[in-house]
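Sync notes, pocket subgroup
Present: LS, DG
LS reminded everyone that the earlier model was apo-only. Rerun requested with LYEYTBR6 included. Inputs:
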Amino acid sequence: MSIIKSAFRVLRFGSAKNQLFSLESKTCRAFSVCNKLRQDASDANASKINFYVDENKEKGYAILKLNKGPVNSLNLEFLTELNIQLEKFEESKEIKGVILTSSIPNIFSAGLDIMEMYQIKQDRGSQFWTALQETWIKLYGSNKIYIAAINGHSPAGGCLLSISCDYRIMSKGPYKIGLNETLLGIKAPFWFRDTMINTIGYRETEKALQLGKLYSSEEALAVNLVDELADSKDLITKAEEQMSKWCAIPTVARELTKSSMRRDTLSKLIAQREADTQSFIEFTQRDSIQKSLRMYLESLKKPKKSSA
Ligand SMILES: CC/C=C\C/C=C\CCCC/C=C/C(=O)SCCNC(=O)CCNC(=O)[C@H](O)C(C)(C)COP(=O)(O)OP(=O)(O)OC[C@H]1O[C@@H](n2cnc3c(N)ncnc32)[C@H](O)[C@@H]1OP(=O)(O)O
């Protein structure tokens, strides 16, 4: 059961009952829009493996490895598949926690697929944004323990995935993590911002978001954007050690505590999902935004300087 649902339970007889049920029904409507997409995604991607799941039911946790080459960019189909998997974890009685990592060397996730924002039709844009909202709500609002084992670069949407987890361990190395949206000429959505504030505090977020700062792993540790660094070869072992520690905490007390810390941030988006999607569509259709995205895409496609 997700944090949102348990919040409804805890407050069932309280004065917030009507407001929360209205939030829940809005959420359910938005989720049902995705049902057809889910079917399409599972049909279309039956032959592709965009992530691996390694479940250790004896120990009570799973490892989810993102595997969508070349850079684990998040497009509609990938997000839809991920949402189905996150739901499976949430419903599992055996799985208490999930280690989220990537099978692609040096890349955790390059964030949102920029092609989902560039010259995109309104329908697709709206489905994409709804799926992304759902991923965040499921991850940030999960009752399970999520530990991010960040094995490489983790900009923008990749950073959002990481900070939606409960604990972050990052590989030592020349990797970057952060919300760099301003460098693409776009503003980080309020729920990206709020998740960042909840992680590193208001002042650091204010600087980081305006500058589009990408932190090195050492810098990320210094501002608590990550909780621990590890040599690449030890990353998963360290994540498993941490998972065992979290799994040993009394479950209901931990879940209620997590829920109480995250409920307000989640409710803010849940109350305005449709308006948030409309803002995304309106914003990304602006000529100035399309121009910025085109320039950014071109800079990504430029031939890389040889290191030799
Ligand atoms: C309600 C809201 C209202 C208003 C808001 C409006 C707008 C919405 C805001 C949305 C917030 C946005 C969040 C995002 O996540 S945007 C994406 C940001 N990501 C990045 O900036 C990362 C870009 N990528 C990189 O920096 C590097 O690729 C990376 C990850 C360091 C890896 O480097 P390297 O190993 O050298 O790999 P390449 O750069 O050669 O990349 C390989 C290949 O992948 C393509 N690619 C990379 N990143 C992306 C991406 N994010 N989307 C799509 N494609 C990507 C790259 O172009 C290369 O392609 P090629 O064809 O040349 O092989």
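DG: The first strand starts at residue 51 and ends at 56.
LS: Residues 70-71, 73, 107, 110-115, 153, 155-157, 180-181, 184, 186-189, 276, 279-280, 283-284, 300-301 surround LYEYTBR6 (CB under 6 Å).
Action: DG to write up.
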